[in-house]
Design goal:
binds S-adenosylmethionine, seven-stranded mixed sheet, about 30% helix, three-stranded antiparallel sheet, alpha/beta
C-alpha cells in the first residue's frame, strides 16, 4: 500500500486486509430499521456510503433493493463484490471505491434512499460533512430519504485519545468525529428532520444517533 495515501484510509484498508469480516455477517440494527422504513416508503434504489465489507449492503440486496455502495477502502469494496457474487446478488449491488469528500459519482435526483452507518462520524471536518450533505441532497430524488448514524458525545470514547480538532478523537488508530444534537441540526441543510433516535452497538458499547431526514417532496430537484 503506498505511504502517500490518507492515514485514515490506510487504517481502513489494513483493517479489511487483517479482519475482512470485522463488523460481522449480520446486518446492523440501523440497517434493519432503515430497510423497514425504505420498504414502507416505496424506496427501490439505495445509495450506501461507507459500506465497509457490506454487512448492510448484502442485507439490502436480500430485501430486494438495488444498492450502489461507496467506500474508499478498496479491500472492503472487493469483499462486497465477492460476497454479492457468491450469493447471486451481483446484479443488484454496484460497489465502487470512492472518497466521499469528493463529489459522489451518482447522477442528480436518481436515488430513493441514502443510508450510511458510522460514515458521517469518520475523519471529516464539519465543512466536509456539509459538502457531503449537499451531495446527498443532489443525488436524492424529491421525497427521498437520508438515514445516517453517528457516534455521539455520550460514547465512552468521546474525549479519549489524540484530539484532531472539533469533536474528533483518535483511539487505537481510528479517528471518530463525535456528534452532539447541535451538529445534527447543523447538517439538516433544508432536509426535513424526521427523527433522531439513540441506540447502542457492540460491547463498548458505542453510543449512536440514527438520524432520519427527508428531502421535501416539493423540491425542484
Ligand atoms: C465505522 S466503518 C462502518 C462500515 C459499515 N458501514 C458497517 O457499519 O459495517 C466506516 C467506513 O467508512 C469508510 N470511510 C471512512 N471515510 C471515508 C471516506 N472519506 N470516503 C469513503 N469511505 C470512507 C471506511 O473505509 C469504513 O469502511
Amino acid at each position: 500500500m503506498p505511504d502517500s495515501i490518507d492515514p485514515q484510509r490506510k487504517q481502513w484498508e489494513q483493517t479489511y486486509i487483517d479482519k475482512p469480516g470485522m463488523f460481522g455477517e449480520q446486518p446492523s440494527a440501523a440497517g434493519q430499521a432503515a430497510a423497514d422504513l425504505f420498504e414502507q416508503e416505496g424506496v427501490a434504489t439505495i445509495l450506501e456510503l461507507g459500506g465497509g465489507h457490506g454487512r448492510d449492503t448484502l442485507f439490502f440486496a436480500r430485501r430486494g433493493f438495488d444498492v450502489t455502495v461507496l467506500d474508499y477502502a478498496v479491500q472492503g469494496v472487493a469483499e462486497i463484490e465477492n460476497r454479492a457474487r457468491n450469493v447471486g446478488h451481483e446484479d443488484s449491488v454496484n460497489a465502487t471505491a470512492h472518497d466521499v469528500r469528493t463529489p459522489l459519482p451518482v447522477a442528480d435526483a436518481t436515488v430513493d434512499g441514502c443510508f450510511s452507518h458510522m460514515l458521517f462520524c469518520m475523519a471529516m471536518s464539519t465543512p466536509e460533512l456539509e459538502a457531503l450533505t449537499r451531495e446527498v441532497w443532489r443525488v436524492l430524488r424529491p421525497g427521498g430519504w437520508h438515514v445516517y448514524t453517528v457516534r455521539n458525545t455520550s460514547d465512552p470514547h468521546f474525549g479519549v485519545g489524540i484530539h484532531h480538532g472539533e469533536d474528533r478523537y483518535e483511539t487505537g488508530g481510528y479517528q471518530v468525529h463525535f456528534f452532539n444534537r447541535q451538529k445534527v441540526e447543523q447538517l439538516v441543510q433544508g432536509f426535513e428532520l424526521t427523527a433522531i433516535d439513540e441506540f447502542d452497538e457492540g460491547v463498548l458499547p458505542r453510543r449512536l444517533f440514527r438520524v432520519t431526514l427527508r428531502k421535501p417532496a416539493n423540491t425542484a430537484t
